[in-house]
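Box 4.2: Ligand-aware structure prediction
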Amino acid sequence: MSHGTVESDHAGEDTRTALVTGILGMDGSHLADLLLRKGYTVYGLARRSSRESTSNIAHLEGHPRFTILAGDLTDQNSLIRALKVSGPDEIYNLAAQSFVGESWNTPEYTGNVTGLGVLRMLEAVREHGAPVRFYQASSSEMFGKMVRNPCDEDTPFYPRSPYGVAKLYGHWITKNYRESYGMFTVSGILFNHESERRGIEFVTRKITRAVAMIHAGLADHVALGNLDAKRDWGYAPDYVEAMWMMLQPDEPRDYVVATGETRSVRDFLGAAFSMIDVEDWTPFVRIDPRFFRPAEVDVLRGDASRIERDLGWRPGTPFEEWVRRMVKHDIEEIG
Ligand code: NAP
Ligand code: F7E
């Protein structure tokens, strides 16, 4: 599939309906593409914004099986209404204040949306009454100061940011509702994943956009923080497949989703600049203390063998390939 198009690959009609929160975000839009290709009817929950931010789903405008519903994770009634209107078989709860750096500026707000927002979604499902399968977007940030390397589903958590702590609440309340009420709820513990639709504040997209700007002669440097941080980076369209897979088995189970490979921000700079044939990127990077965090997650690496064994998921797209796609996309967009 090319960026921004939805081709149908469903043989026969899948008449299922999904409600996706966070539909305007990176994952929400890739998941909508996947579900529409499978033949689902998709409802996406989006909050009101004073600024236009629908570019990730612009290509879905007018799609006969795609509808946007107004709602906010901080407003319980809007969630109950969204369930009533959509009548979903599956819910993917992807909405969150998802930027780790911002979570120190707005810790209470982050706790309300990213933590308590999950509780409100689960309560809306209970109120709704009908059987629904529920996916929660848990995060490798819950492992934070990794107590084991690599991390799997049994590794103890040690979050290092208000975001990580809020995600931990969402993770446990999802498990608790499964155990308390027998609901089909699962958490996918996803390690970092990126794409052409990534928000521009995250380090990968910040770098690929800067590379494109420098290539076009519109910038001469990018300001960054800790270049030694290491992440287990994958490609978002591969990771939304894992989300869907997790809601298909008879029994709910949580899974780690990761590549098992770890690279530093430095490595990412090397890969991105090499796409415009720049070997030495150091003249184009300035270190700015504003981008360091009060507590850093130095390294993250996941072990996804459970999901490979149970569901057959594997990360498909190689690192260099998706970095190339991101740089190419940004060069075209800026051009
Ligand atoms: P994203 O691009 O930031 O998308 C999050 C979406 O949530 C945005 O569209 C945002 O709406 C929406 N949202 C924020 N607050 C809301 C509220 N109060 N009510 C309703 N919607 C709200 O994030 P992403 O990268 O796609 O990630 C999807 C989910 O996976 C998030 O929960 C994230 O924390 C989690 N996660 C991401 C990664 C990763 O590497 N990408 C890894 C693990 C877990 P606006 O567009 O209006 O701001
Ligand atoms: O930072 C370092 C920064 O903001 C990655 C979210 O999707 O993945 C994401 O969270 C690393 C950090 O992502 C800059 O200090 C250096 O060590 O791209 P990021 P994140 O914090 O890993 C997890 C799994 C999620 O769940 C989150 O929702 O890069 N870094 N210099 C920088 N980071 C940023 N943003 N900007 C810099 O200038």
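In the box above, the bound molecule is NAP. The chain has nine helices and 13 strands.
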